[in-house]
Amino acid sequence: MIQLSFFMFISGAEIFFILFIVLLVFGADKVPEIARGLGKGMRQIKDATNDIKNEITKSAEKHGMDIDISKDIKKEVNKVKEDIEKITGSIKRKF
What we know:
The protein is built from four helices and no strands. By secondary structure, it is an all-alpha fold.
């Protein structure tokens, strides 16, 4: 989520400029190798995060803790959405 908000502030021209600088610094033959390495690193981080999540979930289930807090939160959010829709009725914003 943080990454998504970070990229919202970078325009296409800025991304192109950064890629151009990377191409100049490392050369065309090294860019795929660098991208492959970054991809592998990101995959390892994702796998490690999933492993940690699974261990926490298993531990919580073993000790009888409620691990599905997100369902309760989603229910409350949906209730608030329904209340807001009831209050506003058919009022829609026009842009």
